[in-house]
Automatic annotation (TrEMBL):
This is Beta-glucosidase. The keyword Cell membrane does not apply. Keywords: Carbohydrate metabolism, Cellulose degradation, Glycosidase, Hydrolase, Polysaccharide degradation. Substrate binds at Q24, H125, N169, Y311, W417, E424, W425. It comes from Sphaerobacter thermophilus (strain ATCC 49802 / DSM 20745 / KCCM 41009 / NCIMB 13125 / S 6022). GO terms for cellular component: cytosol. Belongs to the glycosyl hydrolase 1 family. It is an enzyme of class 3 (hydrolase). GO terms for biological process: cellulose catabolic process. One of its GO terms (molecular function) is beta-glucosidase activity.
Length: 464
């Protein structure tokens, strides 16, 4: 019976990874010479985090990283996406580096390599040094320059052991979520995050923040290639807004491509094309970002791979003869959702996301840098967590991803968000995204049933 099951296999050498970010798990917020980040400031401001919590201790990963790496190994992960906390390395954002900050990441990388897990660090997962925010943060054109300097320094220091770096995580989320406010709309649809520094800027200034952020990415790509050992590779980890054809026929697929390109205009589209779309500039009008042709060349500095965070389709579309060339179809009132309010179910995003990156921009290699879901995880009487909803979500997502790889879309790896429950930004510890349950009173880690599922998939390099 068992050998009659048709396993959907992934390409040889496919990376099966789990993901986290520094502020969400490290804790040790003021240890070993670390500077403050905008998330320290934001979480310490009353009223900003839903449950009043902070990331001061979080998962105490800074002190428990060995245990966490051992867990990853047990779960069958062969890659790990984590982020480096900029103010641990440069407490003031620029200037003299703090050697103890770098030491931590050296120890972590050593532990990972010894466990046979490949490190994939992200250089910016939203924890900007507060000292730079005090000078205007991403509104200031000096911030992208400082970011590239920090990125080049880390690449120089770590690239004898680390081959892949992600530059920025979700520019769309930190630019819009941090500078626009949660009750407004972004290019790709609704914004589910209100983020540090918690500003509400007018449209022109927001567009400038977005521009500085993509510029920071491009400058960092240049710096990493220049300062890293030969062969050091890098690319963005961006949340892609995905338009999915409601009906899969040629004309609707074409319409979905047009829509996807527009939805990502100030983010992935400009990064991968080196131009803002006409529609984006026209719509922005007098609020369009100020930029030079040199900026566009910098922003589109060639990357070695494209990382995309994929949780759901942003919109469904059908073809249309009238401008803009597609018709957006709203989600039905009874469309199934996962645990989070924003999380509409749509596993086909895992097919169409990478597929669109390939058809629109011909990326040399693609990583799914995040995919996963929150669930109402509870410990059962026997001490286990039976997260059947998460397993259903993951199985459906991976089945769709395998469809893409089987068609030759160059997806090289998948990073599940998240390795363990953690500080979920403005939701505090209320939303659990992990495949490992964390008791935040005792710091006990308990692998959920989904961790067994992940291990099974990774071991077979296939989803059944
Ligand atoms: C992504 C982020 O937006 O989604 C992660 O890169 C985050 O850091 C994850 O934790 C889950 O989203 P949220 O906003 O529901 O916590």
């Amino acid at each position: 019976m068992a050998d009659q099951i048709h396993r959907r296999e992934f390409p040889e050498g496919f990376k099966w990874g789990v993901a986290t970010s520094a502020y969400q798990i490290e804790g040790a917020w003021d240890e070993d010479g670390k500077g403050q980040s905008i998330w320290d400031t934001y979480a310490h401001t009353p009223g900003k985090i839903r449950d009043g919590s902070t990331g001061d201790i979080a998962n105490d990963h800074y002190h428990r990283y060995k245990e966490d790496v051992a867990l990853m190994k047990e779960m069958g992960a062969n890659a790990y996406r984590f982020s480096i906390c900029w103010p641990r390395i440069f407490p003031e954002g620029t200037g003299t580096p703090n050697p103890k900050g770098l030491d931590f990441y050296n120890r972590l990388v050593g532990e990972l390599l010894a466990a046979g897990i490949e490190p994939f660090p992200t250089l910016y997962h939203w924890d900007l040094p507060q000292a730079l925010q005090d000078k205007g943060g991403w509104q200031n054109r000096d911030t992208p320059v400082a970011f590239a300097h920090y990125a080049g320094y880390v690449a120089e220091q770590l690239s004898d052991q680390v081959r892949h770096f992600f530059t920025t995580n979700e520019i769309q989320s930190f630019a819009d979520g941090g500078h626009r406010g949660v009750d407004t709309h972004v290019a790709g649809g609704e914004l589910h995050l209100e983020a540090a520094p918690g500003l509400r800027l007018p449209p022109g200034e927001l567009n400038q923040v977005r521009h500085h952020a993509v510029l920071g990415h491009g400058l960092a790509v240049h710096a990493i290639h220049a300062m890293g050992k030969p062969g050091t590779q890098c690319g963005p980890a961006e949340v892609i807004s995905i338009a999915v054809p409601l009906i899969e026929s040629d004309e609707h697929i074409k319409a979905a491509e047009v829509a996807t390109r527009e939805l990502n205009a100030p983010f992935l589209t400009v990064i991968l094309e080196g131009r803002y779309t006409d529609a984006y500039l026209e719509k922005a009008g007098k609020d369009a970002p100020r930029f030079t042709p040199e900026d566009l060349a910098t922003i589109s500095e060639p990357v070695d791979f494209v990382g995309i965070n994929v949780y759901k389709p942003n919109i469904y579309v059908l073809a249309s003869d009238t401008t803009p060339g597609y018709r957006a179809i709203p989600y039905s009132a009874s469309h199934p959702k996962m645990f989070s309010d924003w999380h509409m179910l749509g596993p086909e995003a895992l097919y169409w996301g990478p597929k669109m990156v390939q058809s629109l921009w011909g990326a040399p290699a693609i990583y799914i840098t995040e995919n996963g879901c929150a669930a109402a995880d509870e410990l059962a009487a026997d001490g286990n967590v039976y997260d059947t909803d998460r397993i259903m979500f993951l199985r459906n997502s991976l089945t769709q991803l395998q469809r893409a790889t089987a068609e030759g879309v160059p997806v090289k790896g998948y990073f599940l968000w998240s390795m363990m429950d953690n500080f979920e930004w403005m939701n505090g510890y209320g939303d659990r995204f992990g495949i490992v349950y964390v008791d935040f009173d005792t710091q006990q880690r308990i692998p959920k049933m989904s961790a067994s599922f992940f291990r099974e998939v990774s071991m077979h390099n296939a989803v059944a």
